[in-house]
């Protein structure tokens, strides 16, 4: 459903991500891992046509269901984003308008993509929140973002991203700002989306444990290039790539190496 | 468990309440009792807002508790004043998550490292260059970094500078507040290895705040688990897998680990942590616990030793009155 072919992405004509390729089928989850600055965010923002700072795809192609995304008009992007492809960020709270109630933002979001009355849109919003196991969706719709915890805001972000049952979900460090128990809730919810709706997911994370648990495919990036990629087993148990091995060894593991 | 004559700092019945809106009170720390030992690391773990930083700040006297005492080599830190406080401070240092906040960006690394030493009259200005090089080497950085400014360095290098400055005064206790959580894992590993080496060489006691059990258990000698301002479990670092408190167990099951069983279903606690403004009476964990009994709603469980070095605050293990 998604195919990224030999893509080079440049900021101000300086190539940052080089010769990147991957493909993803329906219901598959792939994770992008690697140290900060290796180009993970750049790759998934390119898929959604949302590169910041004048970033551009200068070589290669990105195909979504067989059609190139690179030639999309602004109008085509509007129809695609939030419906067929959606994205969740590290802090969905930052994306929500701090001076508007969750419900107002949610209703407006639904109505820009679907012809619905305000009342119907409100009901749909509440339903989505409750599906994300947020207690009393009605209450949350009436809250301001600052009245919710980081984990709750993140679940609101996921609820919005899932409203139109996207075929592809792009998640950029969705749990990095969260505590471990909240992280577990979010990981479980993303897995349920895949199981229930068949959503394909690309997740960027620096938590190799999360990547390993969720993913069919793992792509290791280094300095803008793919340094290693394969299915979970090949990455975790393969011993061919030095950089991957070094990365894996650095992850503290329960019952693993102790320094004292 | 540890040799009591190695104990250098003891917190006794430490409580901190902050005034909150509407005349209410927020209890950030509630009756905390912890001991720090020479050459050993105490790992303090718990979710954000549970009171970890509030507690550790008392030890470096950035704040004083509402109740309780903190005994450092027999003296109550909470009561020290003036010159005695200033002198005592050099023996307890702190390293933060983002050290750039505590560096003057206009100062060269040489001056950043030597500033506290000059303040306490430990070195002469003419010795700065030699001393800076010595401590840069101790944290495995090239000596010519002395001429650099902090913004010309990576996050991991800046964290090494913060450690160099902290060890320069030869402290007996170093507090590290999430000092590695902004770093990439491979950099984190090198910093932890460095800290462990320095600890062994200089017999420094370390208080390390983290929210990652996998990380803490890799080098802590004792682990204290905090929930809503109280310590719910204390256990030896090598025994995390023998944790007994339902909250510690929930933390453990929420860790995604490369060696885990990937077919395991995630059991997550769905409910939210109560606000520290509304800490329930009785056990703080009662609203999220699967084993909650009537007694848990009435009476706060006290830490009870179940094995040497292992204490749990849970009525399942508590003795009946
Ligand atoms: N808006 C931008 N303008 C210029 N360079 C950028 C921009 N965003 C990212 N970069 C550069 O691209 C590289 C990759 O960044 P990024 O994709 O954010 O990495 P990651 O998400 O893996 O941490 C970095 O060197 C970064 O400095
Ligand atoms: N100076 C302060 N005034 C009021 N409340 C505070 C203050 N410092 C911390 N708190 C509150 O105390 C609680 C514990 O905070 P903190 O110790 O920073 O937690 P942690 O370090 O475990 O994340 C939080 O609810 C926080 O909002
Ligand atoms: Mg990124
Ligand atoms: Mg803190």
**What series of H and E elements makes up the topology of chain A?**
EEEHEEHEHHHHHEHEHEEHH
Number of separate strands of chain B = 12
CATH topology of the largest domain in chain B: Rossmann fold
Poorly predicted runs of 5 or more residues of chain A: none
Counting structural domains of chain A, the number is 1
Q: From the 3D coordinates, which CATH architecture of the largest domain in chain B would you assign? A: 3-Layer(aba) Sandwich
Q: Tell me the radius of gyration of chain B.
A: 21 Å
Q: In what order do the strands lie side by side in the largest sheet of chain A?
A: 6-7-8-3-9-10
Order of strands in the sheet with most strands of chain B = 6-7-8-3-9-10-12-11
Largest interface: A-B, 42 and 46 residues
User: Segments of chain B where pLDDT lies below 50 for 5+ residues?
Assistant: none
> Which CATH class of chain A applies here?
Alpha Beta
Fold blueprint:
The complex is a heterodimer of chains A (260) and B (321).
Chain A: E1 2-11, E2 14-24, E3 29-34, H1 40-47, E4 55-64, E5 67-68, H2 74-80, E6 85-88, H3 92-95, H4 102-113, H5 118-131, H6 137-141, H7 150-162, E7 168-172, H8 180-197, E8 200-204, H9 208-214, E9 217-222, E10 225-231, H10 232-237, H11 242-250
Parallel strand pairs in A: 3-8, 3-9, 6-7, 7-8
Antiparallel strand pairs in A: 1-2, 1-4, 4-5, 9-10
Chain B: E1 7-19, E2 25-37, E3 41-45, H1 52-59, E4 67-72, E5 75-76, H2 82-89, E6 92-95, H3 109-119, H4 128-138, H5 155-168, E7 173-177, H6 185-202, E8 205-210, H7 213-216, E9 222-227, E10 230-236, H8 246-253, H9 294-298, E11 304-307, E12 310-312
Parallel strand pairs in B: 3-8, 3-9, 6-7, 7-8
Antiparallel strand pairs in B: 1-2, 1-4, 4-5, 9-10, 10-12, 11-12
Bound molecules: adenosine-5'-diphosphate (2 copies) and magnesium ion (2 copies).
One magnesium ion (MG) is lined by residues 52-53, 177 of chain B.
In brief, what are we looking at here?
The complex is a heterodimer of chains A (260) and B (321). Chain A is 40% helix and 25% strand.
């Amino acid at each position: 459903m998604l195919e990224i072919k030999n893509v080079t992405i440049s900021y101000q004509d300086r190539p940052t991500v080089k010769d990147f390729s991957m493909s993803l089928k329906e219901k598959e989850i792939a994770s992008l891992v690697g140290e900060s600055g290796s180009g993970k965010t750049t790759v998934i923002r390119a898929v959604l046509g949302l590169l910041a700072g004048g970033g551009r795809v200068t070589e290669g192609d990105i195909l979504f269901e067989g059609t190139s995304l690179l030639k999309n008009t602004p109008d085509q992007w509007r129809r695609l984003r939030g419906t067929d492809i959606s994205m969740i960020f590290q802090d969905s709270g930052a994306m929500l308008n701090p001076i508007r109630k969750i419900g107002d933002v949610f209703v407006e979001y639904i109505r820009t993509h679907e012809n619905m009355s305000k009342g119907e849109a409100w009901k749909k919003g509440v339903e989505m929140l409750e599906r994300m196991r947020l207690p009393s969706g009605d209450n949350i719709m009436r809250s301001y973002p600052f009245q919710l915890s980081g984990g709750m805001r993140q679940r609101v972000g996921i609820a919005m991203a899932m409203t139109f049952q996207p075929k592809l979900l792009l998640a950029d460090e969705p749990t990095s700002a969260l505590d471990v128990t909240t992280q577990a809730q979010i990981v479980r919810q993303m897995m349920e989306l895949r199981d229930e709706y068949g959503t394909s997911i690309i997740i960027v994370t620096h938590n190799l444990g999360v990547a390993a648990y969720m993913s069919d495919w793992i792509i290791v990036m280094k300095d803008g290039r793919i340094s290693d990629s394969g299915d979970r087993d090949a990455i975790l148990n393969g011993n061919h790539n030095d950089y991957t091995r070094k990365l894996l060894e650095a992850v503290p593991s329960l019952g693993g190496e102790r320094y004292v | 468990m540890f040799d009591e004559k190695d104990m250098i700092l003891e917190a006794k019945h430490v409580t901190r309440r902050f005034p909150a809106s509407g005349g209410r009170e927020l209890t950030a720390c509630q009756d905390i009792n912890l001991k720090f030992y020479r050459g050993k690391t105490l790992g303090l773990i718990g979710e954000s807002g549970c009171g970890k930083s509030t507690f550790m700040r008392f030890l470096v006297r950035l704040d004083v508790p509402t109740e309780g005492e903190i005994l450092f080599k027999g003296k109550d830190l909470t009561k020290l004043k003036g010159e005695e406080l200033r002198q005592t401070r050099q023996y307890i240092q702190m390293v933060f998550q983002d050290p750039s906040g505590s560096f003057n960006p206009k100062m060269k690394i040489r001056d950043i490292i030597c500033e506290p030493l000059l303040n306490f009259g430990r070195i002469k200005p003419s010795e700065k260059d030699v001393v800076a090089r010595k401590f840069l080497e101790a944290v495995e950085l090239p000596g010519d970094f002395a001429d650099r400014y902090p913004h010309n360095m990576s996050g991991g290098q800046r964290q090494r500078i913060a450690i160099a400055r902290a060890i320069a005064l030869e402290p007996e206790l170093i507090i590290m507040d999430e000092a590695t959580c902004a770093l990439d894992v491979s950099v984190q590993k090198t910093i932890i290895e460095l800290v462990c080496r320095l600890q062994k060489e200089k017999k420094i006691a370390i208080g390390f705040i983290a929210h990652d059990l996998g990380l803490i258990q890799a080098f802590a000698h004792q682990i204290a688990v905090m929930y809503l301002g109280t310590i719910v479990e204390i256990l030896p670092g090598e025994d995390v897998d023998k944790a007994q408190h339902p909250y510690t167990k929930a933390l453990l099951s929420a860790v995604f680990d490369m060696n885990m069983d990937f077919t395991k279903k995630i059991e997550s606690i769905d409910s939210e942590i109560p606000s520290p403004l509304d800490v329930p009476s009785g056990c703080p964990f009662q609203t999220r616990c699967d084993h909650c009994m009537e007694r848990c709603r009435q009476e706060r469980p006290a830490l009870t030793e179940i094995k040497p070095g292992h204490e749990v605050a849970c009525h399942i293990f508590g003795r009946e009155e």
